[in-house]
Every structure is written in structure tokens, then in C-alpha cells.
User: Fold this.
Amino acid sequence: MDESLTSRQLTKCDECRFGAHIEWSELETSEVELLNTTRRTRSHRRGGTIFNQDDEPQGIYCVSGGYVLLWRIDAFGNETAFGLVGPAELIGYRSYFAEDRHAATARALTDCQVCLVPSRTMRRLLDGSPALVRRFLRTLARDPGPSDGLLLRAHQVPIRVRLVSLLLILRDRFGVRGPDDSVEFNLPLARQDIAALVGARAETVTRTIKELEDDGIAIFHGRHVDVPHLDQLYEIVGIDEPV
Amino acid sequence: MDESLTSRQLTKCDECRFGAHIEWSELETSEVELLNTTRRTRSHRRGGTIFNQDDEPQGIYCVSGGYVLLWRIDAFGNETAFGLVGPAELIGYRSYFAEDRHAATARALTDCQVCLVPSRTMRRLLDGSPALVRRFLRTLARDPGPSDGLLLRAHQVPIRVRLVSLLLILRDRFGVRGPDDSVEFNLPLARQDIAALVGARAETVTRTIKELEDDGIAIFHGRHVDVPHLDQLYEIVGIDEPV
DNA sequence: CGTACCGTTGAGGTGAGTCAAAGTAAGTGG
DNA sequence: CCACTTACTTTGACTCACCTCAACGGTACG
Assistant:
């Protein structure tokens, strides 16, 4: 096993609480301590599986480093990705609260580190903290779930637009501002992953990318993307030009 | 206003609690009494609106009679229906817990009766009943939300299959067994509603219906549908024949 | 009896899928 | 470190399911 991850393993959950956006921020110090002592940290290599569709949930997973892709195979055999989760975000909570098997598979897009908060701990925390419960109610209600989470799989929206929407969504996490209004991306996504996210085939993604390159809107070099003018992305998504 | 509905208006929530499947079944008698005294019952004519997309939630709505369609207009202007709700089922809870405006519009498919449980009541009930909270956590986690709730909008699934899936889903509510393995439906849905539910255009629905009729799988007379052999529906959905 | 909506039918276009094959990158073992 | 396997990516030719636009027949309702 690669030790590079475990060496910079975080010792306290506090260090993970990047901000108020994570659910645990509702907890008191003593409760964070419980979280801290009962959680189980695991490292995953790129491509590894955190949990599998149809597995029985063992608790809630908290990503502390790296990125994770949530995808599922639907009743008709199509692979669909519906979520990309990064540091200080939770996964697997939906199945936990649904009291049902995992509806999705979580795959490590990069080497990553994930903590499992066991069901037993979750129960104690939820019983003791109405604030945490309220927070999870809100999270669940806002989470679009294993469906078209990214609004990327709406019908009658051309792949071109969906692809550009995806870029805009990923900008916060993987985009770096360049000179003027240019942006550079380093995506942890293979073409197939992109395809699964926008609800298309890999071949179509390739072709659409080429189209965007021809129009000078986004230049792809493998997983590196150059967007010379961010405005152009918004234009495409906004007005949905008639070709 | 038509009085036929108000005349058979239910006086107690108890009479509405058709079974354990409704959230209120978690409540104690005294709590049901609170529900009973603070709820506001409203009657709606067919076509009426219970709440509108982007409205501020005022509580949770409980359908006591009739059927309601949940639909929304997405960012790209497409109308999509994602839920059909009937007696003893709740609507609007997602927005309530999300602490956000309604993500959908609720339209009465039939004349119907809906009770509003005001936010104030909800707060009191939730504060007093951990069981109710747990139940709502489960409901939210299981509810696919304003997305492809019926698995009917999956990509690469032909409209024909989606339409048949819809029939199978609606069988419990609107299907009546006939002789042998035949089923009759009386749907409260216009062609456009069906189209919005399966993610297609009304014209395409018409054409697909005609196809099903030619194959003797389902005969449509307006909103009345005859299905001579239920098995055939399962066959279509199951094996997704290669034409 | 007209207005308005719903439903059907037709002609025509096309975006994206499918299949197949070649090219490229990435990881494995000797 | 190179040869080999395996998986990912690109390209091309072809097909078709569904959309669009437009017109017309039905049906409900004031």
C-alpha cells in the first residue's frame, strides 16, 4: 500500500471541518470528540471503490481528501454518474437514512482518504443533536439524489450545452483563473466519466469536445482544459443558441 | 364553487390515515389532535393549483382526496412532470425541509381536497416527535425528488418502454383487473401530462400509443386504456427488445 | 354556435446512438 | 528499461428515434 496518504492522515475531525458547510459544524465539542474517536479512516487508490451499489450501508462516509464519483447502473443497464464529491463532503448518507442498500457505487477519482462514521456513532449523534438532525433534513431535501443531480441529463438539452454546464459546475473545484477571463482546468475525469455525467456516449463526448475546440471555446489536452473566455461558456448555457 | 367535495369533507385526520404508509402514523393521539385542529382544508377544481414553483412554502400539504401532478419548468424551459400523488400522501415537504422555495408546481388532476399543515404545526410536531423526524428522514432519503422519480426519463430508454413503465406504475392506483390477465385503466392524465411524465412531446406520445395499439398491447380510448395481457407490459419493460 | 384547448396526422430534419476499427496511453511483468 | 497487455480514446460511416413545424379533426364548455 502507498504510504503517502496515511502519512498526512488527519488526526482530528476538527482539521477536516473546513467550514460551516459541513454537517458536523452543528456539533458540540464533545460530540466532535465522539466522531473523532469512533470514525474509521481508509485510504483508497485512484480507481478504488469506497462502496458498491447494493451494498448494505455501514454508516456515513466523509471525504477528507481527494475526489469521489458517484454512479449507478439503472434498471436498463445504463451507467449514469450523478455526483462528484470532494473534501469535507459526505457520501452514503442517502442510503443510511433510507434504511436501504446503496443506490450507487462510489469510486475514487483520485487517490483519496475517506472516513467511515459507523451507524452506531450516527445514531448516538442524531439522538443527541436536534441541530444535526435538522441539518440532515435540509441536506436530504436539497440533494437531488441519484437522479439528474447536475441538471445535466435534462431531455432536449444538447450534449454541447450539457458539457459546458458541467465545466461551469466543475469550475469551483478544478478551475484556475488565468489572465483576462480565461480559466484552466485539471479534471480528474476520464472521457467515459464525463459521458456518464452528461448522459451520453464516450464517442459523442469526443465529438462534442472537438466541436468546442473548433469554435475556440475550450481546448482539451487529455484531462487538461483551457477556456480562453469564460463568458462564452455562459453564453452557450444561457441562450441555448439555435445552432 | 362546487359543494360536492366539501360535503364529504373529512372531519378528522384519523379518517385520512389509511395506513402505516403515511407519516402521521408515527404520531400519538394528542399529536394527531393538534394536526386535526390546525390544519387548513382546501378544495380544488380539476386544473387548479395547490402551489406554484418558486412560491414560499407555508407548510406541508396532505392530499386527502383526488390526484395531484407535480411538475416543473427546468432551466432550459422544458416542462417535466415527476410525481403523481394521491390520497393520504404528502406534497411540498421537500421544499419545507430544504428551507427553500417550491421547486415544482402542484396541479389538481381531478377535483381534489388538500390539507395544509402550517409550518408552525410542523415545527411543534417535529420538535415533539423523534419518530416523526426519523420517518421524514427516511421519506426524503427515498424520494427521488424533482428528478427522474419514475425512472421514466432515463437516457437511451425508448419512449415506448417508458410509456409502458408508466402504465405499470399507475396500475396500483388507476388499474382495475378484468377477466384473465387483462387490466383497465381510467387515467386522470391528458396526453400532455403523459408526455411530461415520460419526457417526450405530446405528438410522440400519440404515435407511440398508436404503435402499442397496432401491436394489441394497449388500446386507448381517450383516457380509458384496455390492456388485454398484463404480461406483455412486463415483457416490454423487462427485456427491452431490440426492435 | 363559436372559441379554445386537446388530440391526431404528415412531412422533414437531425442529434446522438451503434458498430467497427485503428490509434494512444497506462499499467504489468520479465 | 523495454515488451506486452489492457484499457481508454478517437475516427468514420451509417441509422433511426424523436423533435419541429404546420395543419386539421374532435370535443368541451360558456
Q: What stands out?
A: Chain A has two domains: 4-143, 151-237.
